[in-house]
Predict the 3D structure of the following.
Amino acid sequence: MDIIFLFYGLAFLVMGLVIIILRNNESSLKLTDILWLLAAFGFTHGLLEWTDLWRIVRGDNAGLAATRPAILLISYLFLFEFGRRLVLMSLSADTRVKPAGKLLGTWLYAPLLGLIIVGTAISDQPVLTMTIGSRYFAGFFGSSLAGVGFILYWRNHIKSTSLNHRMTRIGSQVAGGAFIAYAILGGLVVPRADWFPASVINQETFLEIFHVPVQLLRAICAMSAAVSIWGLLRVFHLEALQRFSANEDRLHLATTAGNIGIWDWDIVNNELIFDDSMYALYGIHKEEFGGAYDAWSRMLHPDDCKFTEEEVQAALRGEREYTANFRILHQDGTIRHIKASSKTFRDPHGTPIRMIGTNVDITELKQAEEQLRLFNETLEQQVIEQTRQNIEQERLLIEQSRRAVMGEMIRNIAHQWRQPLNTVGLVVQNISDDFRGNRLTEEGLDKDVDTAMRCVKNMSTTIDDFRNFFRPDKTKSLFKLKLAIDESLSLIEATLKNNAIKVSLSGNLELQAFGQINEFSQVILNLLTNAKDALIDNKVPYGKIEIELGSTGHAGIIVIRDNAGGIPEAAMEKIFEPYFTTKISGSGVGLYMSKIIIEKHMSGSITFRNMKDGAEFTVGIPLMPSDEMKLE
């Protein structure tokens, strides 16, 4: 746990630092005006998690225990205010003055703080009550508002502008998702208390159910938020680049119109004349300039004097026209970058007599080039890191999907065991009755024992099937499709029978495919479970699931269809998206991970369509391994 709290707190502190570093006060985006609230949340919440780390490593003390709930409340108030302002900022001006906008007024703080203060005051456990109240009322709503606000702000203020970039889009969406997930994990999963809902939904029951401490998932949300905030705040960099481009356009316009510094050097008499723009470029007044070549050269940066002099002499010798970039020193020590160009005039004998040229201040251009150079140097590493994080996110989604399947399997085991347990109970009762009635014979006893042992064997087989299904085997090999399908069906057999759902398996039952049989079984189980749930939820009187096996070329085809009425039209474009579900208690990762497993892990495909009376899913996977799959 100490490592978890270390990274948990570090992620929030990094988020605060990212905001402080990347926030641009000169930006035209209103988002920059409220980012300090999110940075304050990051710093205070990161400090809070490190106090938990101190408690674990060094032990708790009364002062720290009393301070921690106050820090928690303060951090969540920063987040709540940020989320409230962000959502309001994302709404149109008309919506903000309507009742929907007024719901997010500052009046919310009165009931929010009132509930926390009153609950703490009347509780016999004030520290615990304040902690839970802060999470319920400030943490949950603050995180939710921040998550929704990020998504709305991108959609209403960035999406339709030139700042709509892939990184800002992904950053906004991931930040929104991370804060919404954190609202649930940090705002609803609280320390255990004697009152509802903390007596039911708490950190201890979460660990018992999922076998993962909620702090780990909170830390993942925090790290995702920090990285995504970095991606979102690239909008300021894009805005700066656009400003740079606009400056370049203005510079071109100024050059065309003559709004530049112009100088005229009489070489014969050594008289150098500046126009008013030149005096402004060099930061001097007209009376301070000596009017000779030496007076100009004394304003050059010492490191550029030799190079600039060589370029001037080359122009005088006729080798090339004078064009150079050099630095000058203002009287206050400021360094400016100048771009110079000129035309040399000569007498009939070729002797240089006059040179006329221009100077342009390119300091901003040089600074932007340096920023771009530094950005390009780190871009490759940023891409590698983002790829690593995407892979990690995919791994977490796979684990979440398997946990959801595990929960479903536990319910199925209960169904599978119900009948054998009833039978064993009846056998024991029969033996007891026969014994009391002096009817117990050796033959009858053997028969009853045989019946009971068959039931026990059946129950043991169910456990073996369950254990094999979740065996962490990543080896790819050839396997029979029918075998994988039979294993998946065996896990939900009792539920199918109890709900009178008929399953048919037809086609080429000898087909073999290449891949990880456990992952493929997970996909099949997910599709079968979805079909079963749809049949039950829609109360279809004669429910049926049809499975057909076939092949085309080098691909095996598995078709699973039902008569549950099909997928709603509004959901058809989203069913493969993560966290999208049409079930009341669904996790929304089943079909998403099925698509990942089939398309990325097995180089196959998965599609669906609505039929006359139900949905049909088609899975295509290689029958033989390709060279790419062998190299994985």
Remarks:
- Confidence is low (pLDDT under 50) at residues 627-632.
- The chain is about 60% helix and 15% strand.
- The two ends are 34 Å apart (CA to CA).
- The first strand starts at residue 261 and ends at 266.
